[in-house]
Design brief:
Helices cover 46% and strands 18% of the residues. It is of the alpha+beta class. It is globular.
């Protein structure tokens, strides 16, 4: 009986997690369900890449004492993602106190840009 409740608890937890994930994807890319094939997987991949870039920036800053360009992160093996995920291209802007990693869409569509800063929060433009 205890195993049944444990299994049901796991299934319910996964369902709740998937629900909140779907809300997050919908908030960033309204109308993806109507697109042919949907762009939700693309947006999720871009978000994961941006989080990876931000984590690489944190690692670089911890070891080198400064933030790095995208090319420096790739060359220093802090990052293994490419500089793009078509139709998005990545860029990193740095200052002494922080960074902004952005993904800009090269063709018409929404969102036009996603970005992450040292706050580790992915944001999107309309």
């Amino acid at each position: 009986m205890g195993r049944v409740f444990g299994f049901l608890g796991t299934v319910i937890s996964m369902a709740i997690g998937m629900y909140f994930y779907s809300l997050q994807v919908k908030a960033i890319e309204p109308g993806t369900a109507s697109a042919v094939g949907g762009e939700a997987p693309l947006i999720a991949g871009v978000k994961n890449d941006l989080i990876g870039i931000a984590n690489a920036e944190r690692g670089y800053q911890a070891s080198e004492g400064k933030y790095a360009s995208l090319d420096e992160l790739i060359a220093g093996k802090y990052l293994s993602v490419r500089a793009d995920r078509p139709p998005y291209v990545y860029d990193v802007e740095t200052t002494g106190q922080g960074f902004k990693a952005s993904a800009t869409r090269t063709v018409k569509g929404a969102p036009a840009q996603l970005w992450i800063t040292e706050t580790m929060q992915v944001q999107a433009s309309d």
